[in-house]
Every structure is written in C-alpha cells, then in structure tokens.
Write a structure and sequence with these properties.
Oligomer: single chain
Number of domains: 1
Order of helices and strands: HHHHHHHHHHHHHHHHHHHHHH
Distance between the termini: 72 Å
Number of strands: 0
Shape: globular
Strand content: under 5%
Length: 414
C-alpha cells in the first residue's frame, strides 16, 4: 500500500534532517503545522479552562504559577500590597483561594511586578489567566515577527516546548523573551523605545541586568537613559500606588529568597538550568556553585560585550544578548530559558543571509526543542543540566558567527 504523499514527504525531510537546510526547514514547518494547533488547544482549552474557576479539565489547579500573581494583585488592590512578602500570610492566602493543593509559591519579585499583577487582579481568575496567556503569546509572536518577517519562523518558534511550558504554567518567560528581543532589535534604530522595553524587564532583575550593562559599556547613552527612566517610573508608580511597605517587605525578604531559591532549592535542584544549578546538581557545594556561576557569567558578559562592541549585524547582537541573559543569572527556572528560542531563530536568520547553516548550527536547531522537552527528566536521572549546555552552545555559535576571525600573520620567508 502506498504511503500518503504528506507522510512520504515528512519521512524524506526526517531522513536528511542534519544534511540540508531546506530539509531541516521543511521538517520544522511540517512539525509546527501539527504541533502549534495542538499546543494552543491544550494550553488554552484543556489547561486554560475547566469545570470550575480554580481547576482545569484534568482536575489540576488552574494556572499553577500564575495563581500567586493574581493573589498578589488582589491583595494590592485590597490595600495589602506588603502581604505578598509575608511568606506565611502569602501561602495562607493561596490556600484560602485555591485550596490545600496551593500554598507552595513564595513571592520573590520586586514590587514593580505588583503593577501588572494588579491589572490581572481586576479580572476574575479564569479570565485573568486566559488574558495573561494571550498577552504573553502575542508579545512573543510580535517579537519573532519583528525579528524575521517570516510566518514560518513564527510558527516554528511557537512549536517550541518552552512556549508550551510558559503557557501551561502561566509564567512570564515569553514576556521576558519578547521584551528583550524587541529591545535588542531596536537598540540603535529606536534607542528610546528600546531602553523602555529593556526597563520593563525590571520585574526580573537577574535577567534584565545584562542589557543596561551592555548599554553602559558600549556607550549607548540615549538607550541607557531611557532604560533608567523607565525603571524609575515603575518604582515611583509603585510607591505612589502602594506606598513604601512592599519595598520594605522586598528588602526584608532578600535573604530568605536567597535561602529558598539557591541554598535550599525548595523547587528542586533539577529546575535551575543556570550554572549555579548545574554545579549543585552535580553535588557541588554552595561555594563551588557560586564560583562556577561567577566564572560562567563573566565569560558570557565578556563574549556578548565583544559582539556588541563590534560590527555585527543587529540580529546577531540581539541573539547574543538573548543567549547570554540566562548564563548571567544564578537562578534560571526552565521557563526562563525562553529567550533561547528567539536567539536560535535569529542565529538561523543570520546563517541564511550568509549562505547557510553550519553543521553545528543545524545540530543546535535540532537539539534545542529536544533538550527543552527533556530538561527535568535528564537532570533528575543523570545530574546533568541540558539547560546550561543549551545556553552555552547557543552563545558560542552566535559568537562564532558574529566575531570576526583574524587572519593569521604571514610567516616571513627564509
């Protein structure tokens, strides 16, 4: 019996996945056509709604991580913005709203995140969760479209497991990736807009810090000024709306956050895909993990600074920032690897403009979704961090394409 032509084409694409850019693109497009509708149906339908306002159709808590964002916003609107930094009170509020299965999320965000949380808190919880997912995905799609102008690129990016991870849990990794991507693409053409986009990532300072550092060290003063003004405006807005109490709570809980997130790893060692987490996962002490983290972060900063100081195209500048951001942070939960998706898309775009992918670049594009889908399983079973490997590989391949190779000095005759 003859196989359907679509299936035959899919098998042909798969057979030459590592040997041809055209085959790789065709395979990714075919896979995305099947996966994206499925991902959206599961995220927005099966997991995004449910038989009651607090549970999805699988009987699980609706929104998981997003639940505490909504709780924080509701508390701020009710005149209790500092409760989110009182851990016992915050956990009790989660349980009171969502039942005994909740009450497991500590709030580590700076008070500026109370601004979008309060907007979410204006809506009933199911509507707030769907709106959060829709906004996150829309911003991510706009960033990929702005970077590539390609419907195929948008479709393939949306099929990445990290996109589903963020949607299913109601996390903010897609927002972070979208803002950093758009900011990096506009850094020289629209520096004021770019600075504001970078400043909006202040809710996640461990990922936001690299951009202003690059702006400072490469002399992009207008963009840096806009970034500082944007962060300051958010801080002043938080003070005006909620007073000093949440800021005091945030400062008072910094040591607790460090203990929960890094020292004791309440969420599990396998969830942290940064260099710090990789060292701890292999059995290293906290001191060893910090040493590894500092070394990796310095190397990443030096690499991306060289790229941003040179003549590289804007797509490679953006890819370098996106790939390096997770390497700078000591805490990189899986969903915060989302910037690697536009980084790999931009790398592929640069390769296409220069004549095609190298073998290593093609291998990265194949490995990225596979690694992302199996990060926690591999970490738990082997003690190896695929997330760190993926971040390092992405930055190295971006640097290999972005940094000019100096020709060897001629050898004198005789």
């Amino acid at each position: 019996m003859r196989a359907p032509s679509g299936l035959a084409a899919f098998r042909t694409d798969l057979s030459d996945l590592f040997g041809s850019d055209a085959r790789l693109h065709a395979f990714a497009r075919h896979a995305a056509f099947a996966l994206v509708p499925l991902v959206l149906a599961i995220a927005f339908g099966l997991l995004g709604t449910g038989p009651d306002p607090r549970h999805n159709w699988l009987g699980q808590m609706l929104g998981y991580d997003f639940s505490q964002v909504w709780i924080a916003g509701r508390g701020a609107l009710a005149g209790h913005p500092a409760e989110v930094y009182d851990l016992p009170r915050h956990l009790a509020n989660q349980q009171a709203e969502f039942g005994a299965e909740a009450g497991q999320f500590a709030w580590h965000y700076p008070p500026v995140f109370l601004l979008p949380a309060s907007l979410a808190g204006l809506l009933p919880y199911p509507a707030a969760f769907l709106a959060w997912m829709f906004f996150s995905l829309t911003l991510f799609v706009v960033a990929i479209w702005r970077a590539t102008g390609s419907r195929d690129a948008v479709l393939i990016a949306c099929a990445h497991p990290l996109v589903f991870c963020n949607l299913a849990y109601g996390q903010n990794g897609l927002i972070t990736a979208g803002l950093l991507t758009l900011g990096a693409l506009l850094v020289d053409r629209r520096p004021l807009i770019a600075g504001c986009l970078f400043g909006l990532v202040a809710y996640k300072p461990q990922l936001a810090a690299l951009a202003p550092l690059l702006l400072l060290t490469t002399g992009r003063w207008r963009c840096l000024s806009a970034c500082i003004v944007c962060v300051g405006a958010q801080g002043l807005g938080t003070l005006a709306l909620f007073g000093w109490s949440p800021w005091q709570g945030f400062l008072d809980t910094l040591a607790l956050s460090n203990r929960i997130v890094l020292t004791e790893a309440w969420s599990g060692l396998d969830i942290n895909a940064g260099a710090f987490g990789a060292a701890r996962l292999l059995g290293g002490s906290v001191a060893t993990a910090w040493a590894v983290q500092i070394a990796v972060a310095l190397a990443a900063v030096a690499t991306v600074w060289r790229i941003w100081s040179g003549p590289a195209r804007i797509d490679l500048l953006a890819a370098a920032l996106l790939a390096a951001a997770p390497l700078v942070s000591p805490y990189v939960p899986l969903y915060d690897l989302a910037p690697l998706v536009p980084a790999s898309v931009l790398l592929a775009l640069a390769a296409h403009r220069s004549g095609g992918l190298t073998g290593w670049e093609r291998a990265l594009l194949v490995a990225s979704p596979l690694c992302a889908a199996s990060l926690r399983m591999v970490a738990a079973s082997t003690g190896l961090s695929l997330g760190l490997a993926l971040s390092l590989a992405t930055l190295l391949l971006v640097a290999r394409r972005a940094l000019p190779v100096r020709a060897p000095a001629p050898v004198p005759a005789g």
